[in-house]
Amino acid sequence: MDNCEYYDRVYGCWFGKNIGGSIGIPVEGTKEFLSVPAAEPSEILPNDDIDLQLVWLDILKKKGVKINSSDLAEGWLNNITYPCDEYGFAKVNLKLGLKPPVTGYYNNWFHNGMGAPIRSEIWACIAPGRPEVAAWYAWQDASVDHWEEGVYGEIFLAALESAAFYSRDLKTVIGTALSFIPGNSAIARVAKRVSSLHGEGMPLKECRDSLLIEFGHHNFTDCVQNIGFIIAGLLYGEGDFLRTIVSAVNCGYDTDCTGATAGAIAGIMTGREKLLASGYASNGKVVTGKGIRDIEAPETLSELTKDIMELGKKVKDKKDLPALPASFSLPPLPDFSPPLSYAFEISEPFELEGIERAEEAVLKNEYNNFTMKIFKSSFFDLNPYFRKPDSAIFLKGIIKIPKKKKVKLFPASTDGVKMWLDGKLILSHHQHSEFIPASHRPGSPLAEAEIDGGEHVVLLEVIRCNGKLDFAWIVANRKNFLLTRAEYQK
């Protein structure tokens, strides 16, 4: 591949990333099948899908191409301010002194999210036609804030995109990508399944619905279903750039990510010149969001492409770069000491009938049959404390914070919760809800309060109706980061 073709395909990648993300952003989180028209967006919108890769670009330019997860972890601490989901939990883990890959695993319910798969393009673009190298970079990247399928998802896409620089055959590039991840992983299985359904002639909507039955998750950012939609977009798009993007976006869920990634892959395969010759406008801006800081970011796609090409030459010249082996499996996690500790006293279970009398007794300290439990993450397994459905338990703890602060107190639960702070009821809800332990998500039942420095008594009444209960105790600051300076007294 000569420099002209290299430029053409790298530019096409980021052009597609821009277009696809901007088409998908307005409908992000929609779980219904959509009918987004196949039309270019009126403007290019900022997207973390590109922002985070601009941070990696800055690190590569300053440190060189021999980087690893530790170098990328520095970028998370110094240059990235996004608090959302896996990003926020991983940043807290880094601030607590943990190292990758523990940072992607510990206390991170969102470790299978799309946050890592969406930043695979830079590794493919600096290692075109070398999927084993692109996949190794992806492993280093994803391990900072993801684990399991979240890691396999970025490896899969980086390898696929690297292979796409030299092959226009989707079956071939998908097969290459699959060779780097375990065949029993959910990413591998969803890739094979969507390829099979498309091969059988199943319409896109029916294919999408079938994928959701087998691989669907209530968290719209879960990567397995969304990577399935990306592959569906590529297959059902049949080589047409916009049709590829909207086929992915119309499947719903994390549409900015699916549209952006499908667009990037279609852009690599098509190239800038063919896209412009087909009538697509050359909106060559790089639009950054508010979640990154203190980096030198290119302002145009042309500048971005040239920066990446310079790095690609350095990768090509280095024959000793690490490569990911075929059928890579995640290694065992290293031993570590969980840095979080939550001390709560837990009551015996009470039947819901007459629960008001139990509440009164606990609030007046007339009930003392509590057992102390130390939880080592924000996610509490409370199921062993219930003996039967339609009952409630109380958790009582003393939280100490160093100074006056506005906080979000969030007992995330799939059933009902009441919460008292220093004897005052500040939250009461009884609803069966999907478990999304993120204080920034709209509709989360939480309480916001400004509390003085010192000790405060927190009392929780947690209800379990039927089935398994999911529960997390999250105290976040106004920026939605976990408040780690809070101490819990025994």
Brief summary of the model shown:
With 490 residues, the chain is of the alpha+beta class. The radius of gyration is 24 Å and the shape is elongated.
Main traits of this protein?
490 residues, alpha+beta, ADP-ribosylglycohydrolase fold, Jelly Rolls, 8-stranded antiparallel β-sheet, 3-stranded antiparallel β-sheet, 11 strands, 14% strand
Please provide a written account of the structure.
The structure is a single chain. This protein has 490 residues and is an alpha+beta fold. 42% of the residues lie in helices and 14% in strands. The strands form two sheets. Strands 1, 2, 3, 4, 6, 7, 9 and 11 form an eight-stranded antiparallel sheet that branches. Strands 8-5-10 form a three-stranded antiparallel sheet, with no helix packed on it. Helix 13 packs antiparallel against helix 14. The mean pLDDT is 96.
